[in-house]
Amino acid sequence: MATGRIFSIGYGSQTQSELLNQLARAKISYVIDVRSSPFSRFQPDFSREPLAKSLKDNNIKYVFMGDLLGGRPKDDDCYTDGRVDYRKTRSKDFFCKGIDRLKTAHSKGLSICMICSEGQPSQCHRSKLIGEALVEHGIDVTHILPNGSTKSQSEVIAELINGQSDMFGEEFLSRKSYR
To answer: Dihedral sign, CA of 10, 16, 22, 25?
Structure first.
């Protein structure tokens, strides 16, 4: 069975050209947009349409999955005190469907990269929500940092918990309150 590679990247303050260079170095063939709202007032080049066009011009396919894997789900049951509760979100059918699609891409040997706006994976749902769900299925995620270096999913989580293991498991919530 072929196995692909799953990366994650946040464009942060990068230019589109810098991001495209990082994707090319990682040999990415599909970019999976995991933003709930794929628009950027601050960096309009990263809004859905211009990003999809630029990726296509660079032979990279764009797939929007923010409705399934986004960090701000529409389902009110995914929130605790206004913050997204990632444990609750991981149990939802829509999220499981999104993870199944990533697992399928992985099993087909595709090289994909999830994209969001947050540059640091430790501050983003790419690691705390999606990455943790993929690890539960035996799939590692490699996070591409703004400087082009990488961190494994386990390194990002160790950074989040300061190297301390928690015998009760990690219960991550979003950094911000959305409701």
So the answer is: positive
Distance CA 90, CA 106 (A): 19
- Render pLDDT for 73-114 as a digit per residue (tens, 0 to 9): 999 999 999 999 999 999 999 999 999 999 999 999 999 999
How far apart are alpha carbons 76 and 88 in whole angstroms?
10
Cβ–Cβ < 8 Å for 107, 81: no
Indicate the DSSP class of residue 120. S
Element (H, E) at 115: strand 111-116
- Assess contact for 10 and 126: CB atoms under 8 A: yes
Q: How many residues does the chain have?
A: 179
Residue type, 28: I
- CA–CA separation, 27 vs 170, rounded Å? 32
- Domains of the chain listed by start with CATH number: 5-177 (3.90.190)
pTM of this prediction?
A: 0.90
Residues 6+ apart with CB under 8 A from 121: 8, 10, 127, 131, 143, 145, 151, 156
